């Protein structure tokens, strides 16, 4: 169903009539299983190759394992709160900012959109860095020269991402590409696990001590906590939920259960196996650590590159939806006007992403900063407070206290994590020049 200028009423649970706001993209067209794969694609994107180094190394075995389990539980709870508010107030909120604006007003609408834009821009920047790293790793498997630097590979990756964005008009159109994404994910995840296990078995005892001075350990630990929440959360749940078929709340909960059960297992396996095999020397791109046949490592890196191209499209889709709706880009995706618009606007947006990626290719730092300044506020602070405001007459005192504790705790964590991430970026910026070849 394409968006149009009229508002169409549909019915969800009970007698509630739900209004679907105007949008140029498709809504209510996907099964919960397809949406579950969209969510799982976000979790098991090529970012999973960084969690051994970005989460386990700063936290160690005890706090790393406990942290991942706790992050899984609290992330599921927070996402369920947002999912249950999708039809709050007798209308359907297909954008995060629409929901915040409906509950709080116009100022909250603008702030939420700003936070979400920063979140998605940073995630997309990280995907382009990942894509560039994967291409570079593939190149050096077959060549000994150093003429090609990381910024060149980032530029190539950004160009391919732009071509894909131009060819896929909206989130629901991914369909078969989600199958390819799952296949590519399985390739690099299985290869990373198998080669890491082989290296671990054949290696002497590893050093699992947390590296750094006491001061640096404090900051890296806080940054790792931001990476924990970054791993499990999209910051665009209402936009994904907009694509799901009726009943939207019930089906979204099914998708979330799928995401946080079956979907998290590959992430756990890669994070734990990589850290077990290489200890405190684990890289933030695990495929840089593994040894094995060249063709196997090449297959893993190429799969990571291709999967990142697809996954980036998911996290860029809210921006695409906003621009397409704002300028009335709908109907035949191959129409000259629509195709030209996507070439110019999406191409321009990803050009900026690519430039930032090449300037500051510090992937772990970007993960920390994204978690701090946008994932914490959107997923935990805002979700818990919105639920308090929306359901205040139906919550018991203990429930209200629990949500307020979440708001307070994650507010403190957000500030601390932002300071830690900015410090890490400042340190790395002194160590490396812009357009660094990491």
Automatic annotation (TrEMBL):
Its main location: membrane. GO terms for cellular component: membrane. Residues 30-422 form the Amino acid transporter transmembrane domain. Keywords: Amino-acid transport, Membrane, Transmembrane, Transmembrane helix, Transport. GO terms for biological process: amino acid transport. It is found in: Membrane. The chain crosses the membrane at residues 59-83, 104-130, 150-169, 176-198, 218-236, 256-278, 298-323, 343-363, 369-389, 401-426. It holds the Pfam family Aa_trans. PANTHER family: OS05G0424000 PROTEIN-RELATED. This is Amino acid transporter transmembrane domain-containing protein.
